Amino acid sequence: MPLHKVLEPAIKLAEEGFPISQTLANLLDTEKEVLGKWQSSRKIFFKTTAL
Q: Residues 35, 41: contact at Cβ < 8 Å?
């Protein structure tokens, strides 16, 4: 199977996101101050909006 076909589902999840449990949502909410300290984690865990 070609590599691009193998990676296709993972790329789609990375680009479009996926649902998480309420438990994980609560944990991320609790840790948002820590996650927001670094630009690299902000890019992953925080949505950005252009005005």
A: yes
Cβ-count burial of 41 within 10 angstroms (0-12 exposed, 13-18 middle, 19+ buried)?
Answer: middle
Q: How far is Cα 50 from Cα 37, in angstroms, rounded to an integer?
A: 20
Q: Where are the domains of the chain?
A: 19-51
pTM, full prediction:
0.58
Q: What is the pLDDT of residues 27-47, one digit of tens each?
A: 999 999 999 999 999 888 888
Task: Supply 7's token pair.
Answer: 């990676």
Nearest of 21, 28, 19 to residue 46 by alpha carbon: 28
Tokens representing residue 27 in the block: 């944990």
